[in-house]
Amino acid sequence: METNFYPLTQRRLRADTHIRELTASVKLSHKSFIQPLFVDEALTEPREVNGLNGVQVGNVESTLHTIEDHLQQGITKFLLFPVPSQKKDTDFDFSFASGTIKKIKETFGEDIWIAADVCLCSYTSHGHCGILNDDHSQVLNSKTIDVLSRYSSLLANAGADCIAPSDMMDGRITAIRNQLDALGFEQVSIMSYAAKFSSQFYGPFRDACHSSPSTKGLQNRKTYQLSPFNINDALASALRDEKEGADILMVKPAALYTDVIAKLKQQTLKPVAAYHVSGEYAAIEALAEKGLLNREAGHVEVWAALQRSGADIIISYASGKAKEWISNAAI
Ligand code: PBG
Fold first, then answer.
1. Atom of ligand 1 nearest to the CA of 276
2. Which of 200, 211, 257 to mutate to test the pocket of ligand 1 (most atoms within 8 A of CB)?
3. Which residues contact 217 (CB under 8 A, 6 or more apart)?
4. How many structural domains compose the chain?
């Protein structure tokens, strides 16, 4: 008798939406998402970011509205990137950042969870993530972590629920944890940019935060961020941050580094966060604009890939859409 089915078929489990939904190994939830927020001291009006459709750099007032909109869409977790109006290379002024956190927490209190990015790249004239030596050839690690620890304590004092250092200095997790604990902020967590690669995919972000590294002296971040050609360094650095007291370990970029997410997840019991960065987001948007993929389905497919590889937390510029898009997703 002629049969239509190969005896070892797997296709019974693919036959219709019901069975595909039932048997899906990945179940996404908008509750695992964090929305990044950009707020610029110099802006009177919000502005668009080249490549980041639907994302604005706001002022404090508009950022409060953005949070409100996200709450309506079921998103309660945020990652704030404050951009000061003045560039300086010493005596950094963190009052705009801490004032913004304070205002946000006064407005939304326990309704939201907010992490504050901690880095110097949007503060310094040269755009590097730390303080440089005189001829701009090196980042001064310990001088930088002193400043980052002070910055972290000001943000915690202003009400940040979590500190998210993205600078990639050595020893900053220990320094920040000690500083927070000494001041009584034991409950404030640390989400470490634990495996952060030196990547081409940060372009739109650098436009948003005016944080491109300068061309004089150190021309890129390769001496402190990870090489895309070295997974051993990525895992060693992330596990080092875990030992130093990081509560959440982040891998960034995300979609290009699912191997790192998967391997890290096997080696740690800490939650792993995947940051689908600005350039990765913009790539999907650009394809969608050309009619080459479906925008919603494209983002959801990436999110599924991140969770499948082991991410517990997803940081996405489309978090506001996560609830709607996940529930609409045609599995
Ligand atoms: C700053 C920082 C960067 C991002 C987050 N924090 C850029 C960089 O290291 O140059 C990138 C985020 C994104 O592209 O979405 N240290």
1. 15
2. 211
3. 126, 132, 135, 136, 137
4. 1
What's the whole-model pTM score?
A: 0.96
Q: Assess if residue 16 is contained within a domain.
A: no
Residue-wise burial string across 73-103, b where 16 or more C-beta atoms lie within 10 A, e elsewhere? eebbbbbbbbbbeeeeeeebebebbbebbbb
CB 286 within 8 A of CB 50: no
Average confidence (pLDDT) over 35-44: 96
Which pair of structure tokens corresponds to residue 158? 């202003």
Residue-wise pLDDT for 102-139, tens only, equals 999 999 999 999 999 999 999 998 888 988 888 888 99
pLDDT score recorded for residue 1: 58
Tokens of 20: 């595909």
Q: Residue 117 in 3-state DSSP?
A: strand
Angle at CA of residue 284, ends 278 and 290, nearest 5°: 130
Tokens encoding 24: 């899906």
Whether 11 is covered by a domain: the verdict is no
| Strand, coil or helix: 144 | helix
> Residue 311 belongs to a domain with what CATH number?
3.20.20.70
Mean pLDDT for the chain overall: 95
Q: Which domain holds residue 260?
A: 27-328
Does a structural domain hold residue 4?
no
Residues lining ligand 1, Cβ inside 6 A: 117, 119, 121, 129, 166-167, 202, 205-206, 211, 221, 277-278
pLDDT digits (tens, 9 = 90+) for 243-301: 999 999 999 999 999 999 999 999 999 999 999 999 999 999 999 999 999 999 999 99
> Which residue has the least CA distance to atom 6 on ligand 1?
166
Q: Whose CA is nearest to atom 5 of ligand 1?
A: 166
Q: How far apart are CA 257 and CA 274, in angstroms?
A: 9
59 inside domain: yes
